[in-house]
Design brief:
Blueprint: H1 3-9, H2 11-37, H3 45-67, H4 76-98, H5 106-138, H6 148-170, H7 174-188, H8 193-197, H9 202-213, H10 220-278
Helix pairs in contact: 2-4, 3-4, 5-10, 6-7, 6-10, 9-10
C-alpha cells in the first residue's frame, strides 16, 4: 500500500492530518495573535471573546451552507472539514476565554452549560458522520429512510404470497406456520435497533439458523421458496439497519440544531452585556 492510499483509507490519518494538526497549528497561531494584540493590556478576554464569536459564526454557517446547495459556495466536504476544524479549536478557546470550564455568574454559567451541550453533541455528531456512512455502504444497498416502510411492506407481501401459494399448491403448511409464528411480526416493524446501533448481528444469524433448520423438513419446491424467504429476511434486516442508523442521524440533528440556536441566544445576551459595560 503506497502512502497516498494509506492516507485515503485510514481514518486516524485523516483525523490527524485533516483536523488535529491543523487545529493545533491554528491554536498556536491564535495564541501568538492574542499575545500580540493583547500586548500592554491587562485583560485579553475581549480579544479571545471576539475570536470565539467569529468561530461560532463560522460553525453556524455550515448549517446554512447545507440548506443552500444550489449556490456556488464551495464543495460541501470542504465546509464540513472547516466545521470540524473550527469545532476542535473552539473547545479549548472557550476554556481559555472564560478561564474555567463553567464561568461564574448565573447567566454565564447557563451560557457555559449550553456551550458544552452543543460541543458534546457536536463531538457525537462527528463520530456519527465518520462512521455511519461507511457502515451503511458495507451493507450493499442504498436506500433513503422515507422509502423504507414501502420497501418493507413489499417484502412482507411477497413472503406472504409465496407461503400462501405454496400451501395451496402442495398442501404443506410448514412454511406458512413458520411465517405466522416467526416472520409476521419480523416483517411488520423495525427490529433489532439496539443491535444495529452496536453493529451486532446476533439476532440476524439466529433467525437465519432457524430458517436453515427447516430445510430437512422440506421438498425441492419448498426449498426453492425457502431460499427466496431467506433472501428477503436478509434484505429486510438491511432495511432495518438503514432505518436505525439514518434515524439516529436525524435525531442527532434534531438535538444539535436547537441546542446551537439556544446557545446563540445566550451568546447574544453575553455580547450585548459586554458592549453595555464598555459604553
Amino acid at each position: 500500500m503506497n502512502k497516498n492510499n494509506f492516507q485515503q483509507r485510514h481514518p486516524l490519518v485523516r483525523f490527524l492530518t485533516g483536523t488535529l494538526l491543523p487545529g493545533a497549528a491554528l491554536l498556536i497561531l491564535m495564541g501568538y495573535g492574542v499575545r500580540f494584540l493583547g500586548a500592554g493590556l491587562r485583560d485579553t478576554s475581549h480579544v479571545t471573546g471576539w475570536i470565539l464569536f467569529t468561530m461560532l459564526i463560522l460553525l453556524t454557517l455550515h448549517t446554512f451552507r447545507k440548506k443552500l446547495t444550489m449556490l456556488p459556495l464551495g464543495a460541501m466536504h470542504l465546509w464540513t472539514n472547516l466545521h470540524i476544524l473550527a469545532g476542535a479549536v473552539t473547545i479549548p478557546l472557550f476554556v481559555f476565554h472564560g478561564g474555567k470550564w463553567i464561568p461564574n455568574g448565573f447567566l454565564d454559567a447557563i451560557l457555559g452549560i449550553s456551550f458544552w451541550l452543543v460541543a458534546g453533541s457536536g463531538v457525537f455528531g462527528f463520530f456519527l458522520y465518520r462512521n455511519v456512512p461507511r457502515r451503511l455502504t458495507r451493507r450493499g444497498i442504498e436506500v433513503i429512510q422515507e422509502r423504507i416502510p414501502a420497501l418493507r411492506a413489499e417484502a412482507r407481501q411477497e413472503v406472504e404470497q409465496a407461503v400462501l401459494d405454496l400451501a395451496d399448491a402442495t398442501g404443506s403448511t410448514t412454511l406458512a406456520e413458520f411465517y405466522e409464528f416467526r416472520l409476521r411480526s419480523y416483517f411488520n416493524k423495525v427490529c433489532n435497533s439496539r443491535e444495529h446501533l452496536l453493529d451486532w448481528n446476533r439476532s440476524r444469524f439466529s433467525l437465519l439458523n432457524e430458517i436453515k433448520g427447516l430445510e430437512r423438513y422440506l421438498d425441492a419446491r419448498e426449498m426453492e421458496v425457502l431460499g427466496r424467504i431467506e433472501e428477503l429476511v436478509v434484505y429486510k434486516d438491511d432495511l432495518d439497519y438503514h432505518c436505525t442508523l439514518q434515524g439516529i442521524m436525524k435525531i442527532w440533528l434534531l438535538v444539535h440544531l436547537p441546542l446551537t440556536f439556544g446557545l446563540w441566544m445566550f451568546v447574544a445576551w453575553h455580547v450585548l452585556n459586554v458592549l453595555g459595560f464598555q459604553s
